[in-house]
Design goal:
- This protein is an alpha/beta fold.
- The chain has 2 domains: 248 residues, Rossmann fold (3-Layer(aba) Sandwich), CATH 3.40.50; 126 residues, no CATH class.
- The protein has 16 helices and 10 strands.
- It has an 8-stranded mixed beta sheet, with helices on both faces. A two-stranded antiparallel ribbon has the order 7-8.
- Helix 3 links the parallel strand 5 and strand 6.
- The protein is globular and about 60 Å long.
- The N terminus is likely disordered.
Length: 420
């Protein structure tokens, strides 16, 4: 680890081919890896079979040299392994084997033809962790230098580190803070039978949001509904325009993003969140973001997500739909499988950790107190917290050079700390 150094920033990839030109598999209905021309030099698209029942699609670089330390990059929603396209080569150039999978339910990983009524059990947190551990082992590793997770990938990365600290030697969480495992009731031996084990009252947030004028709803509850997938997949403006407006509205390009901590989990406080987080009750996500569609001039000026790159996402989600990613929100809203996570009550991430978010990202604040609990309790070796200029929610896409620099700086700090 000590010999690894940061290198000069690699240029952002220029997409030269439409995803329609990507290779197709030979089996009926199969789809092959990405065409090499849509990826940066040195990054390849491939499949890894027999990963917890999946045929997992991954992007990787730095694979030419054996025995390199590995870094795993886990994407969020609605993203793909492709979201790391401009980070992967920078980390690989510094001496790492970099592996970015399409997570369960996403992109070209098998099983992405997901329906709303499908069993949720495969998408529970501990099975997602099993996916990632299985991928590590499939590549011949018994441990990796770091697991990095953004958005939905952040809790997956955090739980990887809670459950298997022997496998994941450091953790980088991005945009979504990890507040720790759910707590088990304590000091209840003398409580009357049937008495609630917690002093906390019922959570009335969603009902209270619906009582606001105008009435509102939380996006996570909306994403758990049957109609969410159809609303986005069959958006009146089309999937491509929907994703353009969605990515724009949650980026630093949308100047109305001025995040700050919320005081409490109350409807009045949550009403301060942008409409993409706390939506109008009578609108779907497609209608919510449509008024903020950027102009043709703004799209042409968007260097971090040129239209050719956006088409990778719109082609993939147009093919698979959004339900595979939405299953994770359904897990959270249903409360199912939460009890098994209480097995880890009191456990912390005891490996070196870092948090990164964009300065224009509300994600760090949408769960009041989570950022502070992560810094003070959940991660016992928190090295640093960084808020990146010129970035909103899609920090690794908006500012890949700075995110790569921060990760490499973190890895060097960790290497020096362990060598002392």
């Amino acid at each position: 680890m000590q010999g690894l150094v940061a290198v000069a920033a690699a240029p952002a990839v220029v997409v030269r081919a439409n995803p329609r030109q990507q290779s197709r598999g030979t089996g009926s209905g199969d789809i092959g890896p990405f065409h090499p021309e849509i990826l940066p030099p040195g990054v390849r698209s491939r499949f890894v079979d027999n990963v917890n029942g999946l045929r997992m699609h991954v992007l990787e670089a730095g694979f030419e040299v054996r025995d390199r330390p590995a870094i795993l990059l886990l994407h969020g929603y609605p993203e793909l392994a492709y979201s790391w396209r401009n980070v992967i080569p920078r980390l690989a150039s510094a001496g790492y084997h970099v592996i970015a999978p399409d997570l369960r339910g996403y992109g070209r990983t098998s099983g992405t033809d997901v329906k709303y009524d499908d069993d949720l059990a495969p998408f529970r947190t501990l099975n997602e962790v099993r996916d990632i551990v299985g991928l590590v082992f499939a590549f011949g590793y018994r441990s990796v230098a770091a697991v990095v997770g953004h958005d939905f990938g952040s809790p997956v990365a955090a739980w990887c580190s809670v459950v298997r600290p022997d496998v994941f030697r450091s953790t980088v969480l991005m945009s979504a803070p990890f507040a720790g495992p759910p707590a088990l009731p304590v000091d209840t031996a003398d409580a009357p039978p049937g008495r609630a084990a917690s002093n906390a009252g019922p959570d009335t947030l969603y009902d209270d949001l619906a009582k606001l004028k105008p009435p509102r709803k939380h996006y996570q509850r909306y994403y758990a509904t049957r109609e969410a997938n159809d609303n986005m997949l069959h958006a009146a403006q089309g999937v491509h325009a929907f994703l353009r407006a969605y990515y724009h509205m949650k980026s630093a390009d949308w100047k109305q993003n001025k995040p700050h901590p919320l005081k409490a989990r109350t409807a009045d406080e949550f009403a301060k969140l942008p409409r993409y987080y706390v939506m109008d009750l009578d609108k779907g996500m497609a209608e919510t973001v449509a008024p903020e569609m950027p102009s043709a001039a703004e799209i042409a000026a968007c260097k971090w997500l040129p239209d050719e790159a956006l088409r990778v996402y719109s082609e993939e989600y147009g093919r698979t739909g959004f339900q595979g990613g939405l299953q994770g929100y359904r897990i959270g809203q249903s409360g199912r499988f939460g009890a098994e996570l209480q097995l880890f009550s009191g456990r912390t991430i005891d490996r070196p950790s870092m948090f990164i978010a964009g300065k224009s990202d509300w994600g760090a604040y949408q769960s009041p107190g989570a950022l502070e609990r992560m810094q003070k309790t959940a991660c016992t070796q928190m090295v640093a917290t960084h808020f990146v200029d010129g970035a909103g929610h899609w920090v690794q896409q908006e500012q890949p050079e700075e995110v790569s620099r921060l990760i490499l700086e973190f890895m060097q700090h960790k290497a020096h700390a362990t060598s002392r």
